[in-house]
Each structure stands twice: as structure tokens, then as C-alpha cells.
Amino acid sequence: MDIYTIIFLVLAAVIFWRLRSVLGQRTGRERPPYDPYSAPDPVRNSPGDKVIPLPQRTTEPVKPPEASEPANRYAGIVLAGSPVAKGLDAIRAVDKSFDVKSFIAGARSAYEMIVTAYAEGDRRALKNLLAREVYDGFETVIWEREGRGETAETRFVSIDASEITAAELRGKTAQITLRFVSQLVSATRDRNGNVIDGSAEKVTSVTDVWTFARDVSSRDPNWKLVATEAGG
């Protein structure tokens, strides 16, 4: 071999040895392969980099605070914790639109309308306010009264009290019982116009216990009278 070939071989060996000393050896300080789906490593940021922390994601959505319930939403109506209050709570739990004050106001109006319609023999008005069984009983008395040629007169003076005495949820049927105390003038006349029962002038105190019911699964918001009895 000539001198130039020997020189090139020596240079190649030196270059190979230098490269091997830098490449191909593991020092234990190598960085792992870059993973584009991994979270950024804060150690890799230089002091001049701006690191903006991202809000952490929660597994459950944050619920808005619920409005606190009043200690006794039936104050002045029924005692808190009483069976009646628990019954009203059960009704309200399945019928969010139920409001006890509105119910009492409606029941008072219905009470006056039913008593007046019964005296006048207004069957159409009674059908919209009474359950079928109660309507049948009222209509029977009306037919008998008309058959004897009698007429009834009733005039309300006042409703002094309308107290809820019972409330419960039976399946899908809500039932509420009220005790009404009213002042009214009531008289029954024969076919000749003579008063045969009651008084056309005297105010009488009357107590009635009526039960109203409603199917809470129905879209019909109206309550109907399902039972009546005379109170003491």
C-alpha cells in the first residue's frame, strides 16, 4: 500500500473512534421519547417561559345552591310536623304546583257554589264540582224535592272558618278534608210558598265537613267533592 492509502486509513480510524465516543453510548441522562398526548412537564420550561395553569376538570357538574325551605310553610294553617302537615307534604311532593293557601281559597269558593247550586237545583254546576257518587246523591234529593213541588232558598252571610282537618295521598289521588263553619239563611217552601223548614230571615250557624280529591297524575287541576258530613 502506498503512503496515501495508509494516511487515509489512519484518519478514518481516528474519526470512527471519536464518533463512537460521542454516539452510541447511553449515559442515563437521555430524555424519554416525546409523547404528544402527555401533559407538559414543567421542568422542561425555561425560566423565561410563561406557564399558565389550566383549570382542573371535575367529574360532576357543580349544582346551584337550592333555595332553603321555610321552617313551616303551613304557618297559621296547620301545625308543623302534624299528620296533616305530612299529608300536605306528600301531596306537594308529587304535585309541585300545589299551594295550600290557593287550595283553601278555591275550596271556600267551591263550598259556597255547591251549597247555592244544590238549593237552586243547578245540576250543570254540580256536575263540574262533585264526584259521580256525590252528584248522584245530591240529584236524588233534588228530584224528590221537585217531585213534591218544594223549593229551597239559601243565602250566605259569611264563612267564618275553613280548617284543614285531614290530608293524605292515596296512590295517585290526593284527598284533603276541611271543616267549614258558615253563617247562612236557609229555608224550604212548599208549592204554595209557605216555609216548611228553616227560616227565611234567621241566620243560622252551620258546620260541614267536606272532603275534596284530585288525581295528581291528571292534567285537570280541578278538585272535586267526594264526601260530605255534618259537623258538630
Mind explaining what this structure looks like?
With 232 residues, this protein is an alpha+beta fold. The protein has a domain at 84-230: Nuclear Transport Factor 2, Chain: A, CATH 3.10.450. 33% of the residues lie in helices and 26% in strands. The chain is built from five helices and five strands; from the N terminus they run H-H-H-H-H-E-E-E-E-E. It has helices at residues 3-22, 83-94, 100-120, 123-129, 132-147, and strands at 151-170, 173-189, 195-198, 204-215, 224-230. Strands 1, 2, 3, 4 and 5 form a five-stranded antiparallel beta sheet that branches. Helix 3 (100-120) runs antiparallel to helix 4 (123-129). The longest helix has 21 residues, at 100-120. It is elongated, with a radius of gyration of 44 Å. It starts with a helix and ends with a strand. 12% of the residues are buried. Residues 22-59 and 62-68 have low confidence and may be disordered.
Topology:
Elements: H1 3-22, H2 83-94, H3 100-120, H4 123-129, H5 132-147, E1 151-170, E2 173-189, E3 195-198, E4 204-215, E5 224-230
Antiparallel strand pairs: 1-2, 2-3, 2-4, 4-5
CATH class of the domain at 84-230: Alpha Beta
Can you tell me the CATH architecture of the domain at 84-230? Roll
- Assign a percent range to the helix content: 25-40%
| Tally of DSSP helical segments | 5
How many beta strands in the DSSP annotation?
Answer: 5
Low-confidence parts: 22-59, 62-68
Major sheet details: 5 strands, antiparallel
Order of helices and strands: HHHHHEEEEE
Distance N to C terminus: 139 Å
Strand fraction band? 25-35%
